[in-house]
Design goal:
Helix content: under 10%
Number of domains: 1
Distance between the termini: 23 Å
Number of helices: 0
Shape: globular
CATH class: Mainly Beta
CATH architecture: Sandwich
Bound molecules: calcium ion
Order of helices and strands: EEEEEEEEEEEEEEEEEE
Radius of gyration: 17 Å
CATH topology: Jelly Rolls
Number of strands: 18
């Protein structure tokens, strides 16, 4: 059971709009809907419609804890984003920049490192675009063709790209990442490897990251771009996002 953020140490259920997806139910079928097909009402869907094919399955379908696998092959962007009601990819944006959204997830890169011709994005995004940098508003942790992460944001005015905080992540190890836009004009990034442990800020001291303070819609967003090299496989244990209700 997900406990919302606490105020003064006490859970204040209802103060926040909360999404928490642990990928439990999808285990029954071993797959989730592709955004290129008619949405099935699931919270999260995969989009491989930009090009090529993709595999989007639950690891050990019906297995304990529910783990979603983004496994790529061929040339395309695989996007794990909110389902849409009009059949278009990643266009439902129920979270609001002005309400200070926070995105958090737990994932690991398995088997192969993110490497040449690949990229992994983890964070907050407005409408999905075929080219990641075209996403109007974003704040994400990016693995740009390596396991050495960079930080990026775009508030539709200032585009911060490839800011290097000197953090290298290991494949086959679980990480929780948090993209904290509770102050939307000063987004913070964190990670930890011990469940319930302290968070470590991922910081680029020369850059202020922002998604802007205006009331624009965003969603949680995990994306694997692959242009045809070795298969990248990313296990996602959970995805959460929350914000102030009013
Ligand atoms: Ca899970
Ligand atoms: Ca950018």
């Amino acid at each position: 059971m997900f406990m919302p953020p606490t105020i003064g140490g006490s859970p204040d259920v209802g103060r926040y709009v909360v999404l928490f997806e642990d990928f439990l139910a999808a285990g029954a079928s071993g797959s989730v809907a592709d955004l290129g097909t008619t949405p099935s009402g699931e919270t999260f869907v995969m989009d491989g419609a930009d090009a090529g094919s993709h595999t989007a399955t639950v690891v050990a379908a019906g297995g304990l804890g529910g783990i979603f696998n983004i496994a790529t092959s061929g040339t395309h962007a695989s996007v794990l984003a909110l389902t849409s009601d009009d059949g278009t990819p990643g266009k439902q944006l129920p979270f609001d920049c002005s309400q200070g959204p926070i995105m958090q997830c737990r994932l690991k890169v398995v088997s192969n490192d993110i490497t040449t011709n690949q990229a992994l994005y983890i964070g907050i995004a407005s409408e999905h675009e075929a080219t990641a940098d075209d996403v109007t508003k974003n704040a994400w942790i990016k693995f740009p063709a390596s396991m050495d992460v960079v930080l990026e944001s775009d508030d539709d005015s200032t585009d911060n790209d490839d800011k290097d905080p000197s953090l290298t992540v290991n494949k086959n190890e679980w990480y929780e990442f948090r993209v904290d836009a509770s102050t939307p004009t000063d987004v913070k990034f964190y990670y930890r490897q011990t469940l319930g442990g302290a968070w470590t800020e991922i910081t680029d001291s020369t850059t202020t990251f922002s998604i802007g303070a205006s009331a624009d819609g965003v969603q949680p967003y995990i994306r694997v771009d692959d242009s045809g090299s070795a298969v990248a496989s990313v296990y996602v244990d959970y995805v959460a996002m929350w914000q102030e209700r009013e």
